[in-house]
Description:
By secondary structure, the chain is an alpha/beta fold. 53% of the residues lie in helices and 17% in strands.
Amino acid sequence: MTLTRYAFVKANWHADIVDRALDGFCELVPAAQVDVFDVPGAFELPLMARDLARTGRYDAVIGAAFVVDGGIYRHDFVAQAVVDGLMRAGLDSGVPVLSVSLTPHHYQETDHHNAIFRAHFVEKGREAARAALALTHMRGNLAA
């Protein structure tokens, strides 16, 4: 029996917040079963997720990013492209690709907002772990 493996891809923008999703994920999935990959930003998540899913080494791939409104409305199309790309990567590869990609309506780089979103990413990481574990279990039952 092979050990279940997960790929966790995270964007480096706002890493102090995004990395908390990995913390939450590893509360439920042993870190020894998780390979971690960093990409420059959210826009690069879908391509890396697709490539990792296609390797056949992972039972699920998780992508994490924090896309904030920088005042030029770029965040709208980046967030949509990321979520669409992650979904397509999963459908094209046949491997679950989960998103912990958050786009808040109101974010300011203050200690207060940073604390809120760090905690939120921990919870979102836990949710991704629960989903990954459930999908792995369900898909394993289909193959049996």
